[in-house]
Design brief:
Beta-lactamase; single chain; about 375 residues
């Protein structure tokens, strides 16, 4: 098999990061990936390598875009938090104050804070949907607004795996009149941050193919039976209603790349992710007060979707020993399925972006841990 090509560079003293990146290909089945690290506003690592297609014929480039999954949750959350900063949205106001249709089926008291901290009660949509619905942002938001809460909002937290993007994005649309993809484009352009919700057709040639498949057919079969209790049905529907909500069977299609599913299908480069977090560190995106509130724990404890204890902030996950962001408490960020990662560490002045196309189980992986460890060994 041809050796994976590695390109890019590192600043003096950061060779261990290059070594860890290369080892991810030789030792940890990396297919294609890129990693960018900014320290104190200076880019010290900018590496890319491997292949952007499953056939291993197209080398990964420095500007390759790839589906980064839940890394996008932090990005769409920042767009809403900017509206909080501007005084256009109150965290403790009902979502329905901005999006009246969301009050349906007993959700009138759901607040913006509930929405950002996975306490809104709508981790799944009840109405059966198709992937044709998935391509239509407004249709998805309407179906979510019509869904009765699965639990009393504010009384527990359940990871809104896929609905988070339409919930937070729906508030953004209601306040600004624009879908989150258009808002993100305006925010990201001056940062030179290559992050997208809804990739324009002219940029599809930069998108990497993703090696990932969820057992959707099995899951849909389970839904047809009578053996699921309401909690199990909630969790399962959150993944597979619509069938492609988690990207299964559609991830490498132009329809998926064009769609706006901000919780799940943000397409990004490692440079774009690192530059976004660097802008959070230096105050270009949020005020100190709003950022501090966003990274303050809002809900902690067991989550039935993630199957473990978890702590949620306001879209930005705060540092915990179980799920650290960097090596210093005070770090914040978001992992994506298979190991994609964006985070900021204010103590060390580090902004980090890592994206890849071979999705392996869980968020933390030997690959991203090796890269983060190498960065901190160089500081």
């Amino acid at each position: 098999m041809e050796r994976s090509p590695i390109s890019g560079g590192v600043a003096d003293g950061f060779d261990p990061v290059r070594q860890a990146f290369e080892a991810n290909f030789s030792d940890h089945s990396e297919l294609g990936a890129s990693v960018t690290v900014v320290v104190g506003g200076e880019t010290v690592v900018d590496l890319w390598g491997g292949w952007s297609d499953l056939a291993r014929t197209r080398p990964w480039e420095g500007d390759t875009l790839v589906n980064a999954y839940s890394v996008g949750k932090a990005v769409v959350s920042v767009l809403l938090l900017q509206l909080v900063d501007a005084g256009a949205v109150d965290l403790d106001a009902p979502v329905a104050e901005y999006w009246p249709d969301f009050a349906a089926e007993g959700k009138a008291e759901v607040t913006v804070r509930h929405a950002l901290s996975h306490q809104a009660g709508v981790p799944a949509i009840s109405e059966p949907l198709t992937d044709t619905d998935l391509w239509d942002f407004d249709r998805m938001c309407a179906a979510l607004a019509a869904t009765a809460p699965w639990f009393a909002p504010g009384e527990r937290h359940v990871y809104h795996t896929n609905t988070f993007g339409h919930l937070v994005g729906g508030i953004i649309r209601a306040v600004t009149g624009d879908r989150p993809g258009a808002v993100l484009s305006r925010v990201a352009a001056p940062l030179h941050s290559d992050v997208w919700f809804g990739v324009p057709d002219a940029e599809h040639h930069r998108c990497a193919e993703v090696a990932f498949e969820v057992a959707t057919s099995l899951s849909l079969g389970l839904l047809e039976g009578d053996d699921l209790d309401p909690e199990q049905r909630m969790v399962l529907l959150g993944y597979v209603n619509p069938p492609g909500y988690s990207s299964s069977g559609v991830v490498n299609t132009p329809e998926w790349r064009r769609a706006e599913v901000p919780s799940t299908n943000g397409h990004m480069s490692a440079r774009g992710v690192a530059r976004f977090y660097d802008a959070l560190l230096d105050g270009r995106l949020l005020s100190d007060d709003v950022l501090a509130e966003a990274v303050t724990p809002q809900a902690s404890g067991h989550c039935p979707v993630l199957g473990q204890d978890v702590t949620f902030g306001l879209g930005l996950q705060p540092w915990t020993e179980h799920r650290p962001f960097g090596r210093n408490p005070g770090g914040f960020g978001h992992y994506g399925s298979g190991g994609a990662l964006g985070f900021a560490d204010p103590t060390a002045g580090v902004a980090f972006g890592y994206v890849m196309n071979h999705v392996i189980p869980r968020w933390q992986s030997p690959r991203n841990r090796a890269l983060v460890d190498a960065v901190y060994a160089c500081l």
